[in-house]
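new request in #modeling-help
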Amino acid sequence: MWTLQMYLRLIAIQLRSQMQYRASFWLELISTGLLNGSIFLSLALILERFGNIGGWTLGEIAFLVGMIEMSFGCMDMIFSGFDPDHFSVWMRQGTFDQVMLRPINLFWQVLGSRFLLRRLGRILQGVVIFGMALTMVDIQWTIIKLLYLPVVLISQLITMGALFMMGSTITFWTIQSIEAVNVLTYGGTDMMSYPMHIYPAWLRSFYTYIIPFIFLNYYPALYLFGKPDPLHFPAFAPFLAPLVAAIFLTAALWFWRVGVRHYQGAGS
Amino acid sequence: MKNVYKLFRVAKRRAGLWGSLQGLVRPEYREVRAVDGVSFTLERGELVGYLGPNGAGKSTTIKMLTGLLVPSGGEVVVNGFVPWRDRARYVARIGAVFGQRTTLWWDLPVIESFELLQPMYRVPRERFRRSLDEFIGLLDMEEFIHTPVRSLSLGQRMRADLCAALLHEPELVFLDEPTIGLDVVAKERIRQFIRHIHRERGVTVLLTTHDLSDVERLCERLMILDHGKLLYDGSLADLNHRFESDWQIVVTFEEPYADISLPGFAPVRQGDLRAVYPFDHRRVASADLIQQLLQRYRIADLEVRRPPLEETIRRIYEERLLLAAPPPARVGM
């Protein structure tokens, strides 16, 4: 309880720090919004021409994109302390030593060390795309589906946050392999922006059995739309999202502890 | 701290492109003993100087004592805690300042960083307020307490960091180069503060520094580390007594003397009226020498010169003087 309070205080002090740079905040908010928005716009123009991708309409793909943009944006805001690009700099500069001198759990301290409010640009853009998608697709909403949607979004957020954590943890050993991790997180979100049955089998297998992103976005969307499953997975496939999140978070926390122990052992 | 050593595995760098490729695939390591069998005990309420040249292992020792590093061997026990094993509970009871870095929030006014420390260390509000007011006075921080940390001068930042390390009333503080890069006035202010918290609050202080005047002004006890080994552990007075062999007496005579010799001494003339008498103060008391001089000559002025501490310490490093006469072993911590 106290740890959580301290986390909130750390976040509060973070936000106050960021308010010192108001101009850069607004600029960045607008520019990330515009950048991501233009990417989606080009996709929309292509779809306009071809009608659909793998049998999915513009509205359905916008639904995928909207979900992932919202959850990734939130993750990027909440887990920005664990952003490997940021954490590796910390590591190089020895800032992590300062964190270890404070009497608070290390995970919560890193989480509380950065809270990028300007990611709101990306989140907002996700909300707009998602809102547009809702007007374009025809979903038979039930209570269960309404309850299920936030579970999916939170599962996406946690799974990608766990990947951020693992990427940062690797920097306890080496800061050379950050790019590899970025391929999984940033590349993964791009992958999840399309219906996954269009991918070649090997790529699909990778995102099913190794990094099971397919259960985070594609299957939930299938379920919400009431579409038949072209890949013929068991009927519980859409409900694996929270399980995937739980497994990834557990693994990430475990790996984090191993990493910290290694850091103390090998030194900087 | 008992027989502690710390090994670092350092990847060997190999020359050329081929070498660096090899390094990626099959790295080779060599072992470096940063701290090599160091033992010492700090008593409650001591103020101890920890000296050594760059790379001697001072920072590594401090990192092991603050729980940042796990020793490769040996035992570190502070106040009943094994620092790295129970990190969060342990660091709540110690303070640490690493002179080169700040623990404060860069973009915020100093006071906001301080105020976060009260709930973080669970200090009762009134007590915290009292300490803060006291420290603001002692460290003369009134003028910059509402300034963002990034706009502070180095001296101001160091004062703020010292304050932050002590607001939760730790019993033990580690100060790693707290006066580095400061001017004389700023140094003196920091020293006065350290002396104050040591005397008035009974805080135990382990101070690493390059600046020997820090040690001369503050510490009763001194530890000297080089190449990861403890070369000296004892009082400053004892160090002077044992290793300052070359004292001098500079004499100004009232009239020129043809013969200035004194049995057992080899004076050096400096002009008609001045002469320097080097002597080993461990064998000859300066009072005796002065008396002899006064009996023989009419003397206008007389000055006893001791070598500066720098000189003594330099000799200890260079000649590894202390290896021959190890200090009495101290065990446990």
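bot summary: The mean pLDDT of chain A is 89.
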